[in-house]
Design a protein that fits this description.
The complex is a heterotrimer of chains A (about 290), B (about 250) and C (about 325). With about 290 residues, chain A is mainly α. Chain A is built from eleven helices and two strands; from the N terminus they run H-H-H-H-E-E-H-H-H-H-H-H-H. Chain B is of the alpha/beta class and about 250 residues long. In chain B, strand 9 and strand 10 form a beta hairpin. Chain C has about 325 residues and is mostly helical. Chain C contains 16 helices and two strands. Chain C has a two-stranded antiparallel ribbon with strand order 1-2. The longest helix of chain C has 27 residues. The chains are: A mainly alpha (about 290), B alpha/beta (about 250), C mainly alpha (about 325). Chains A and C meet through helix 4, helix 9 and helix 11 of A and helix 6, helix 13 and helix 15 of C.
């Protein structure tokens, strides 16, 4: 393999994986805290991507600055989503709650996709932000500096999330609820509120990933569910509740897609799901599952 | 003493580095009631879970009726003739009392379910068991509507429906009022008189000492004493363990 | 002790009447009915695993897809209708047996999401294995007007899937499925060989979607990955079963009928935002009707009077 191609594929793969991991963290956080598989997760990503694209297109604002502006909105959206659609299911029996949550989040996903589709008729379907930064040349290797900037941002966000979980009261409360809901409740954690907050934070992570997607590749109304599924694969692979597992799962899938996609474009998107089934066969609790 | 129905031999169990049981050995004589006591965290429930097939021990054997059953699947162990109740009751909440018992009878019966058993015969047997544990009038109720005492009775009924040779009772009496305790003790004696061997974990000393023919004491995952109840009550190591735990 | 199953008699009566339909209706209506039957079969067979056993199988549609593709490939090889249908069904069952082991090592939500991932995986495989499946161009079979025959076969499938569910509910297997739904660990402790029982349930639930898949290809002469694996299609049986009432014999039938007819009406009446309307219905069911239509006051009373009481969810 050519060194340049190798480095390019690795950078692309890791960046892709980092963005996957970011959104997958959000989904994992929501699932860990509330026990709900949020099938609308990818739709929030899609919505944020489209909003940022629209603001960039109409007002010419920098998408990374917009990321900061969109975050509080995303938090509010996630928070309200939990309060209106998820909280009412809390008292149901486990298997009923699971099925109800699937219906509610899926129905919401269908609505969001359809509305986005309706609103974006006419113009080109796949929206993308074109940002140009000069390419760095190191010897024989060309380094796309936009990707490096994005990678730095993704890394910073992941570290920030990690610090948040380890060192703030809210973060610790989130972890406590993830590990033992009843125990946390007995220790004075307001589990009801934590649920909504987890949805809020998770949605911010999805929205952030949406901004990266719209800059790095493209966003269109129908990307939501397939992405959600891919994040689910990453979470299951990594082992539910494992921070490291999600990060590694994201990078494995990102690299896999990047490398396989280069040589066999048609099979790139299959990698995630093949890996998922393979890992389930070998380690049903995921790479880092307990 | 009669011949042992079950022999626990050198059973050791670790949970991610923490030793829950270490080299525990004792015999359960056939037709008797054996009590297991010990402070919280002594490894009593872990031991039950190993016997019932939930966990595979890291080391050691569980010989039941001459066969090593350690590591067999729970459903297979149930059909060999070991059945259990849970420390916190676990009925099938959405099913009727009758159906709760029916699962055990149709699937868990010792030696496997008979190829041909008439429907009427099954019904009669289930009602008989329910009457025996004073739950006959609740047969058609959903298990989730039962009060705690009735749930405990259902646990016993479900366990009996498998025609067990050995019954594992995990803190069945804990939480009952004195009157209910006496009644449950009477039920357990009646079960034992039917020839069913009983292994019970209990914290209520009066009940263990009153019921058991033999008592095994666990402390920090090790067996520190075993013998008849009167001797155990005087054993310095046992007194030390309990006082140590409470002071 | 049980009352006579008046509803089943009613159903039998309806089924006796339905074969008369072809003479009285035109092809379009016949096709609508055939697709209605298809949905009923998918929802009712989904419920063997999803409702009775409590494993929300979001990958149920893969059985249909395997049946549809297997039939198309075999039919193109020159096999007759009956043989191709039989083999397609057997392949769907074999597929269910194959995935049963790895997927049932997972429980609850983990199982559901892995099963959902399976739909995506199968879609990718079908798209990429172009030599076998025709890839995204789809798979064609020799055309023919098979509307009436397909109608009868689909009707037969509805009767068969109802009979199967009814039998399962009344046997030891049904009891084991409910026990697994309530508490799988306890079920195992009391002798239920859970691994085997779950595999049996999955295989039973794969028979009729497999058969229906073959029938689908046969009647519309053309399939492509989007048609049989679409994520929305994958979720429809789940939504239908829940809407009607999961875990109750007539529930999925009712839900499938209601939702399918509603969709048909929406498609013909409204010009846009079909997905939104479907989504609103689905969210509404999840939020307000966890027990489904059969457990709503008046419906539940009617069913009880007919001797088919709906259990609480």
């Amino acid at each position: 393999m050519d060194l340049t191609i190798g480095v390019q594929l690795a950078i692309n793969g890791i960046l892709l994986g980092g963005v996957y991991a970011l959104a997958a963290f959000g989904l994992s956080l929501i699932f860990g805290v509330s026990g709900v598989l949020n099938l609308a997760h990818g739709e929030f990503l899609m919505a944020a991507g489209l909003v940022v694209w629209w603001l960039w297109d109409k007002l010419g604002l920098n998408p990374f600055l917009l990321m900061a502006a969109v975050s509080p909105l995303a938090f509010a959206a996630g928070y309200l989503f939990e309060k209106t659609l998820i909280k009412p299911l809390a008292q149901r029996k486990e298997h009923v709650r699971l099925a109800s949550a699937v219906l509610v989040t899926l129905g919401a996903a269908l609505i969001m996709e359809d509305v986005a589709d309706y609103l974006s008729l006419g113009t080109q379907y796949e929206k993308s932000v074109d940002l140009f930064l000069p390419t760095l040349v190191l010897g024989k290797v060309y380094l796309p500096s936009l990707k490096l900037v994005m990678f730095g941002l993704v890394l910073a966000l992941i570290v920030a999330l990690f610090l948040f979980l380890k060192h703030t009261y809210l973060g610790l409360a989130v972890q406590a609820v993830t590990q033992n809901r009843r125990g946390a409740l007995l220790n004075g954690v307001n589990t009801q509120r934590i649920n909504a907050i987890a949805f809020g934070i998770g949605t911010v992570l999805a929205a952030t990933a949406g901004v990266f997607e719209v800059v790095h590749s493209y966003v269109s109304p129908n990307i939501g569910l397939p992405l959600t599924l891919k994040y689910l694969c990453i979470i299951v692979m990594g082992g539910l509740g494992s921070f490291l597992g999600v990060a590694l799962g994201g990078v494995i899938i990102g690299l896999g897609e990047s490398v396989v996609g280069f040589y066999q474009p048609a099979w790139g998107q299959t990698v995630a799901f093949l890996l998922l089934v393979a890992i389930l066969l070998i380690r049903p609790k995921g790479l880092f599952g307990r | 003493m009669s011949a042992p129905l079950m022999q626990v031999q050198d059973v050791t169990m670790d949970f991610s580095g923490l030793r829950a049981l270490s080299g525990v050995s004792f015999d359960v004589p056939e037709g008797r009631i054996t009590g297991i006591i010990g402070p919280n965290g002594a490894g009593k429930t872990t031991l039950f879970n190993i016997i019932a097939g939930r966990f595979r021990p890291g080391r050691g054997q569980v010989r039941f009726a001459g066969q090593d059953i350690a590591g067999l699947a729970p459903d297979a162990i149930c059909r060999l003739g070991i059945s259990r109740t849970y420390q916190t009751v676990r009925p099938f909440p959405g099913m009727t009392v009758l159906d709760n018992v029916r699962v055990a009878l149709l699937y868990g019966r010792r030696g496997g379910a008979p190829a041909k058993q008439r429907h009427a015969e099954t019904e009669r047997e289930m009602l008989e068991i329910l009457d025996f544990v004073h739950l006959g009038s609740a047969a058609q109720r959903r298990a989730e509507t039962l009060i705690p005492l009735e749930r405990k009775r259902l646990e016993v009924a479900r366990a009996l429906a498998t025609h067990p040779r050995l019954l594992l009772l995990d803190e069945l009496i804990a939480g009952l009022t004195p009157t209910e305790t006496l009644e449950m003790m009477e039920t357990l004696r009646a079960i034992n008189r039917r020839g069913i061997t009983v292994l019970l974990i209990e914290h209520v000393m009066k009940a263990v000492m009153g019921l058991s023919h033999q008592v095994v004491v666990l402390h920090h995952g090790e067996k520190i004493a075993a013998g008849d109840p009167a001797a155990i009550a005087q054993d310095p190591a046992v007194i030390q363990a309990y006082l140590g735990a409470h002071v | 002790m049980r009352r006579p199953h008046a509803l089943l008699l009613l159903l039998a009566g309806l089924l006796l009447l339905l074969p008369l339909a072809p003479s009285a209706t035109r092809n379009y209506q016949l096709q609508v009915l055939t697709f209605l039957f298809l949905n009923v079969v998918l929802a009712q067979s989904y419920d063997i695993v999803g409702g009775m056993m409590g494993y929300v199988n979001l990958g149920h549609i893969t059985f249909f897809a395997v049946g549809a593709y297997a039939f198309g490939i075999l039919f193109n090889l020159g096999l007759g209708l009956a043989l191709a249908l039989l083999l397609a069904t057997l392949l769907a069952i074999a597929f269910a047996a194959l995935i049963s082991y790895p997927f049932f090592r997972l429980r609850g939500a983990y199982f559901s999401l892995a099963a959902f991932g399976l739909v995506e995986l199968m879609e990718h495989l079908t798209t990429n294995l172009t030599g076998l499946t025709g890839g995204s161009n789809g798979l064609k079979i020799a055309p023919g007007n098979r509307v009436t025959a397909a109608y009868y076969l689909a009707l037969g499938c509805v009767a068969a899937v109802l009979a199967t569910s009814w039998l399962i509910e009344r046997t030891r297997l049904g009891l084991a499925l409910r026990a697994i739904r309530e508490d799988e660990e306890v079920a195992r402790d009391f002798g239920v060989p859970t691994g085997r029982v779950k595999a049996q349930a999955l295989m039973l639930s794969s028979i009729f979607p497999g058969l229906m898949g073959g029938l689908y290809t046969w009647t519309i002469n053309f399939i492509n990955p989007e048609q049989v694996y679409g994520l929305k299609i994958a979720l429809t049986p789940v939504a239908m079963a829940m809407l009607g009432g999961s875990g109750v014999l007539m529930g999925p039938v009712l839900g499938a009928t209601f939702l399918y007819l509603a969709q048909e009406l929406i498609w013909t009446q409204a010009s846009a935002l079909h997905g939104t309307m479907l989504g609103v219905v689905v969210v509404g069911v999840g939020l307000f009707m966890p027990g489904g239509l059969v457990r709503l006051g008046p419906v539940a009373r009617l069913l009880r009077r007919l001797g088919l009481p709906a259990e609480e969810p």
